[in-house]
Design brief:
149 residues, alpha+beta, six-stranded mixed β-sheet, three-stranded antiparallel β-sheet, 23% helix
Length: 149
């Protein structure tokens, strides 16, 4: 649980952050990335915002409906060195669980190998993925946006 991990612990080794809206560390440690998670104040909608667009470009999911009725979800896969911890961080997170599942699947796909090869030249990367879902199960992830730095 993210509530059981301290900043001091995150500063001692690389981290893998799984899940977004239910993981306080994912929200805290990704605030400065090109793509960020946000939950509406009424807790009915979760979204990923392209911070470089001033919020004009985003991907949203109604998280107030039952999990098994979500038809499309979005997630983030990222690898970067976090300024706060000084350590490498890997993010595998979706707006809902289907987005997290699809983000995890991307890590084992041949498409991820292409991203990883590209990122070796620039160091840090972040991708937004989309997945269709049926009965609470994610389909194949599709990359809809990417940034490297």
């Amino acid at each position: 649980s993210s509530s059981e991990v301290s900043l001091d612990e995150l500063r001692t080794a690389p981290s893998v952050l799984i899940g977004a809206l239910d993981n306080a560390w994912t929200i805290r440690l990704t605030r400065t990335l090109p793509f960020v998670f946000e939950e509406a104040s009424d807790h009915r909608t979760g979204r990923i915002i392209d911070s470089s667009s001033g919020g004009k470009r985003s991907w949203a999911v109604d998280i107030d409906i039952p999990h098994t009725r979500i038809a499309h979800d979005y997630g983030i896969v990222a690898r970067y060195t976090n300024r706060l911890t000084g350590e490498p961080v890997v993010v595998v997170a979706g707006i809902s669980s289907q987005g997290t599942q699809a983000a995890g699947e991307l890590l084992t796909s041949s498409e991820f190998e292409t991203i990883r090869s590209l990122s070796q030249n620039v160091g840090n990367f972040e991708v937004v993925i989309e997945t269709e879902a049926i009965d609470g199960h994610a389909g194949a992830p599709q990359i809809v946006a990417a940034k490297t730095w």
